[in-house]
């Protein structure tokens, strides 16, 4: 008869769920809200324990499993604009992680088991931690390589924006399809995720997400006084958008991989510009 220790069962599944939630957020390029991940992982650990309790075997039904995963994602990622992407990554990592940890356990003769969809083991937790750490590192590396553009190929560059005494560091993709230019000067425009540039602005002039989604109203609110010449509206066209507007700000200068460039117009995108979170801005070739 298999003996299952409740404390080990809870700890192991909480650890695994936390690593999976963390990895999915990293790959999606989302802020790492670790306390929320810990809470979501703890719920996963409690669910793993509940399945084995007398009278609660019905919780192993697929409907209950799906409900538990949805609850974990809402607790961990609720409010995120990329909830669906993180959910898909979480599920994909769960399958890969489960196979990896079990494989390591079997190769080492450790007897790590996967029963009723949860991990359990009567082993020394050091072995479990080592297995989990190895799988987390390998899977994160593999998924990042698949999701990101390669910096060594010259597609990714580091840029630093200066606005008064404030600065912001970003990773930018050199995008040959980005032909956005300043209609007044004809100078190329940097397109950056507006939410990543909060530290660039002083209090009172920091565009909110509502401002980014309503650039006309944002210009009225923010483009006053000495900032009237800083903010402007930038027309653009993209797939599905024939006549769009972006709120843009003129920064004092930009550095591209350490090379200093003069004043630059930066368009503030209300949505992510990256398909995998590997960069936060786009610049033309």
Describe this structure in words.
The chain starts with 5 loop residues before the first helix and ends with a strand. It has 285 residues and is an alpha+beta fold. The protein has two domains: 142 residues; 128 residues, no CATH class. α2 runs antiparallel to α3 and α4 packs across α5. Strands 6-7-10-5-11-4-3-8-9 form a nine-stranded mixed β-sheet. A two-stranded antiparallel sheet has the order 1-2. It is built from seven helices and eleven strands. About 4% of the residues have low confidence.
Tally of individual helices: 7
State mean pLDDT (0 to 100 scale): 76
The assigned structural class equals alpha+beta
* Overall number of domains: 2
Query: Uncertain regions: pLDDT < 50 for 5+ in a row?
Result: 111-115, 149-154
Summarize the main sheet.
9 strands, mixed
Radius of gyration: 24 Å
Query: What is the molecular shape?
Result: elongated
* Alpha-carbon distance between the two ends: 65 Å
State the strand order across the main sheet: 6-7-10-5-11-4-3-8-9
Order of helices and strands: HHHHEEHEEEHHEEEEEE
Query: Hey, roughly how much beta strand do the residues contain?
Result: 15-25%
The percentage helix is: 40-55%
* Total beta-strand segments: 11
